[in-house]
Design a protein that fits this description.
By secondary structure, the chain is mainly beta. It has no helices and eleven strands.
């Protein structure tokens, strides 16, 4: 059974940084594309970033230049580096092994 466990969320001031991690078990992620999504209260879940098995990435326009998705296949882990955080980035962030599994989410709150 595939499991994804996110970590690294928390409370940060505007302009600050966080790095989210998504550790996978039950499968080897190297052959899969992985993604991050987020969902703010009252909103639909939205795409944040995606990385292919070959390492190609794309990011939502709202986070481009501030967030970076990466992967470490040796650690079976995907990351989301978030810089220059804004209050509108506040959401639950979810890891997605595309087509197979979702994590339980980690809360990110950007507030002074």
């Amino acid at each position: 059974q595939v499991q994804l466990v996110e970590s690294g969320g928390g409370l940060v001031q505007p302009g600050g940084s966080l790095r989210l991690s998504c550790a996978a078990s039950g499968t080897i992620i190297s052959a899969y594309a992985m993604a991050w999504y987020r969902q703010a209260p009252g909103n639909q879940r939205e795409f944040v970033a995606r990385i292919t098995s070959g390492g190609s990435t794309n990011h939502a326009d709202s986070v481009k230049g501030r967030f970076t998705i990466s992967r470490d296949n040796a650690k079976n882990t995907v990351y989301l580096q978030m810089n220059s955080l804004k209050p509108e980035d506040t959401a639950v962030y979810y890891c997605n092994l595309i087509g197979l599994a979702w994590g339980q989410g980690t809360q990110v709150t950007v507030s002074s």
